[in-house]
Amino acid sequence: MIGAVCYAELGTTVPLSGGDYAYIKEAFGPLPAFLFLWDANIVFVPTTNAIMALTFSKYVIQPFFYLGCEVPDSAVRLVAAGTIIFLTWLNCYNVRLTTKVQNVFLVAKVAGLVTVILAGVVHLSSGHYENFANPWENTQTDPGLIAVSFYSGIFSYAGWNYLNFITEELKSPYKNLPRAIYISLPLVTLIYVLANIGYLAVLTKHEMLESDAIGVTFGNKILGAFSWVMPVFVALSTFGGLSVHIMTSSRLLFVGARAGHFPQALSLISINRFTPTPALVFLCILSLIYLSTSDIFALIEYASFVESSFILISVSGLLWLRHKKPHLPRPIRVPTILPVVFLCLCAFLVFLPIYVRPLEVGMGLLITLTGIPFYFVFIWWKPRPTLFKEISEQGTSYVQKVFLSAQQDHQD
User: Fold this and answer.
1) What is the pLDDT of residue 204?
2) How open is the CA angle 266-272-278, to the nearest 5 degrees?
């Protein structure tokens, strides 16, 4: 919630699409912004797409197998790949249709969570408090492990800053952006906390750790003949969440390409559908590559470290912009203590896991550093050789023909 309030100030101070990319560029310049764009499109955007698609796939496939039977890994990845491809096509075809269908998925998500909450309340009211008897038994006290454990929680609450990616497409962003944050975040937090209590009331720690689809396990244990509703609700929820993430993250790539930080071909818009089709297809391909593994927790840790690092930089930019550009219009100005507290929390999540997960942290840093030579060769170096220009123009022309797309009219 503190982070979302900080992003409300950033979104109304720098009212541009692209979220963190726009804020980092405004505060710290093009190189840090490019590195964020590089990591976002190479690491945590396609990784998040893969995670959500794998989750949807497991909940769709699990009911067709008897309890205790192992779901084939290849089947999970094939269904996940098909889901990513279909939702990419849907977002290329019609954004309005995607938005309308999203309302159905939202109802399914809330219905599933309410089902968990009510079942948990009934179970607790029957006197079943045994799962809360020793809540701290066999827990870890290592600060690094605690920080890593937060990554799964952070992923569950992901989305609190996604609206900032499409600020330019919002009606009355100065009014609707903060309103959406102030209304949705407390509601989501309350519902998620109550749902977790419901899960913990019914399932033991062992059952939760052993399950690949906790919603299915929960339904089988307490809902009886109606256990089928849980995989349906969860599948629809993750399906809708993936659709939204594909839509918003493609705008981040589109804005970066429009600013010249990615190939110009990725800044093209379909002349018939008015959607950033090349950017959507590019992210679809990267997301499919990340399906080479179905280890969801490894993907979460891998992506969360990099994303938390750049969120820390973005909120640092909020304080730096107050010092560097104090005269910028700020329709919303949060108390200074809030970004300071949020920076401390981000630092806890970024720096403490270094010795606990050195491989994941090291790979995240390595991928970030590999963006530096690309920046200096393809962006900073001017004038570039004629060969570079010819390849870029030919590639852009090819993409225009394949996707029937053109550059955005800047007057719009």
Assistant:
1) 86
2) 15
**What b/e readout covers 103-123, taking b as 16+ CB neighbours within 10 angstroms?**
eebeebbeebbebbbebbeeb
Q: How confident is the model at residue 412, as a pLDDT?
A: 44
Query: In 3-state terms, what secondary structure has residue 317?
Result: helix
C-alpha distances (whole Å) from 235 to each of 7, 205, 214, 229 are 30, 23, 12, 10
Burial of 24 (0-12, 13-18, 19+ CB in 10 A): buried
Burial tier of 134 (Cβ tally within 10 Å: 0-12, 13-18, 19+): exposed
Q: Give the tens place of pLDDT for each residue, 99-136.
A: 777 777 888 888 888 999 999 999 999 888 888 887 77
Name the phi and psi angles at 201, rounded to 5: -70, -35
Give the CA distances from residue 181 to residues 24, 148, 189, 276, 339, in Å, rounded to whole numbers and listed in that order: 21, 26, 12, 26, 16
* Residue partners of 260: CB distance under 8 A and separation at least 6: 379
Per-residue pLDDT of 262-285, as tens digits, reads: 888 998 988 888 888 999 999 999
Q: Residue 302: what residue type?
A: Y
Extract long-range pairs of 93-102: CB within 8 Å, 24+ residues apart: 93/273, 93/275, 94/273, 94/275, 95/247, 95/273, 95/274, 95/275, 98/243, 98/247, 101/240, 101/243, 102/240, 102/243, 102/244
Q: Is the dihedral of CA 43, 45, 2, 11 positive or negative?
A: positive
**Which DSSP string do the residues of 88-127 spell out, in sequence order?**
HHHHHH-HHHHHHHHHHHHHHHHHHHHHHHHHHHHHHHTT
Measure the CA–CA gap between 102 and 303, rounded to whole angstroms. Answer: 25
Q: What does residue 328 show for φ and ψ, rounded to 5 degrees?
A: -60, 140
Q: Residue 240: pLDDT above 60?
A: yes
CA distances, 351 to each of 144, 341, 383 (Å)? 8, 16, 39
- Buried/exposed code over 281-314 (b: 16+ C-beta within 10 A; e: otherwise): bbbbebbbebbeebebeebbbbbbbbbbbbbbbb
Instruction: Count the alpha carbons within 13 Å of 291 in the hemisphere toward its beta carbon.
Output: 26
